[in-house]
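Sat 14:20. Reprocessing the chain from the morning session after the first attempt stalled halfway. Input below, unchanged.
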Amino acid sequence: MDRKPEPTLSLFLKRLLRRSDLNAQEQRAILSLTGVTHRHRPNEDIVSPGERVDSACLVAKGLVARYDQRLDGRRQITSFYIAGDMCDLHSLVAPKASWSITSVIEATVIRVPHTQLGRLCVEYPALALAFWRDCTVDASIFTTWEGNLGRKSAKERLTHLFCEMGLRMEAAGLGTRQAYEFRATQERLSEATGLTAVHVNRTLQHIRAEGLVKFDRGFVEIPDWNALAAIAEFDPGFLMLDGPQKRIIS
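Finished this time. Tokens:
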């Protein structure tokens, strides 16, 4: 049964407002969306490769990842998604999935129909641009992760990921950049950073020993965020958190 997931829609609207100037009517239109709630156990696929979807996945609770998988079963995670993220908004224009979306931990996802999202794009062109910007952030994250995989050390990859998730959690109101919940296992961290689980474990031990990050039972503490960002060569520009863009549609 469709229902209006108001708290989650408020988080999604907050995400859009970080980058887009939306008027009161446009904001109400976002909050009027409805969807079907699905609850997923840890490590359960939400969308599979080749699947043609007619809705987009709005994360209400938990941690979700998008990944690519080789024939031998090895995975490469390309992004993590937190509450308020619509992790496949681009499926509105590309409904056949060439990737997988999975629950990293127990997660709740609202499936918002493409018909509703498409209608909003037609009725409110500023929302179409807001959705476009949101998809651009996803693409920016993918590009940054690709650069990390190709050019950065294990330590730089992991510290960059902790910096990214800290800023995203802070922007979503789910923590601060120096203290937040991130219940990804070392296996999932290895899949996100292109390292073996053993290499991740060893690198985490070094980072902890240096007092840079405390990562225990899924909770991250960063005593000196600026120091960690310097080690990671972390430039937050790729997250587009500088404030909403000037309206180009009245």
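The chain has a mean pLDDT of 94.
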